[in-house]
Amino acid sequence: MEELKDYIDFGIRDDMVSKDSPLNTPEITDNIEFEGYNEGVPGSSLLLGGLQMKKKTYSDTTAGIWTGIDSDGLAKINVGDSTNSMKWNGSTLAIAGALSASSLDIPDTTTADSFHVNTLGDVWWGATAIGSAIAKILKTGIATFTNVSITGGSLTLTNASIDSSGLATFVGITTLNMKAYTSFEYSASSSTSRFIWSTGATTNAPVFGNQGVLVSPSATASRYCKILWQVTQYVFNNNPSFTCSVQLLTLGANAGVGFIGLGNPTISETGFTETGTNYCGFEFKKTSGTTTLIATQCDGSGTNTFSSTLLTLSSNSSLELFIKMTSSGVNYYTRVNGGALSSVTTLTTNMPSGADSSIQFSSSNKGDAVDFQLQPWSASYEH
What pTM does this model have? Predict the structure, then answer.
């Protein structure tokens, strides 16, 4: 039988504290008050100092643990090293480096206004369950958001990009769109044209040239000019887009009115009828020699919807006009003399619909012996 040795031979004091223990150091024991001890284990009342494993102070970056009362009297803890650590400084918990967890729920798993990460790596906000979240990103790369706003940056997709100005570039689009373009082609020798117009006592024929077509009622009183470009049986269907480049030539004094847009609203030598037909577009309004531009639309009823004044125009102004129809409204944009694209103007009531094949370009002098000349250079339609 092996001989039992006295514990003193193992370097243990009578109070069961190792002779090599830091508790034998006066500067350590002076900082510890014991409520009681059992086999060398300190009591629960630590005034200063604390538990140290490798670390000597709270700010020590050596890999290890320090917990206790710091020199400022605050209870603190520091676990880790200079790269990965968890620190409580008496008021704030800070975690540095990598964090591994099976899931994350902030502030909890029951509050709808919350943030979550599951074990698969999926992330979601605003709901307790990912299935009902309106904002989420799956590990597969599929994301769902109600709205996304990018300020001053850009969005890049595979074969597509949208820059901070809103310019979009797409390559290899698989969606099949119907598209039509014109520079107002006309063959005088064969009297053939893609456009429809009428002649008579109160109408003036359009004049085709190498800068588009001149739509002019002339300076003869009570005259108008109208041409129609027919591109499809249903110009209002399938979220269409329309653009037109037009120059205002002689505007003259007194009154006048013009229209460029989808549909075939009524215009005559006396003026423009804003109700009774389906249409959407831009109306040029001249009153006492001042010409302004508005957006207007009608659903064929006795009421039309129109915007406030978009522009005040002068002779020789060059305009680019843009229309984009959606299921919820019609968006109107303008650009003047090669400048910046305007902000959008959206009209949501009296939306046009139904079978209509025409796009109209027209002008009337409203009974005055003064010309009101619009010269569309080109136009495009797509849906």
Answer: 0.60
Residues 62 and 211 in one domain: no
Number of structural domains the chain divides into: 3
The token duo for 362 is 């027209």
CA distance 312 to 322: 17
Strand partners, 91: none
Q: Measured between alpha carbons, how far is 299 from 276 in angstroms, rounded to an integer?
A: 8
Q: Are residues 318 and 185 in the same domain?
A: yes
CA-to-CA distance for 191 and 189, rounded, in angstroms? 6
The reply to whether 337 and 235 lie within a common domain is yes
Tell me: the pLDDT tens digits for 197-226?
987 889 999 999 889 999 999 999 999 999
Whether the Cβ atoms of residue 22 and residue 40 lie closer than 8 Å to each other? no
CATH of the domain at 334: 2.60.120.200
| pLDDT, tens digit (0-9, with 9 covering 90-100), for 219-252 | 999 999 999 999 999 999 999 999 999 999 988 8
Note the Cα 50 to chain centre separation in Å: 54
Supply 160's token pair. Answer: 């597509």
For the chain, state the CA radius of gyration. Answer: 40
Segments forming the whole domain that contains residue 51? 7-96
- 224 and 369 share a domain? yes
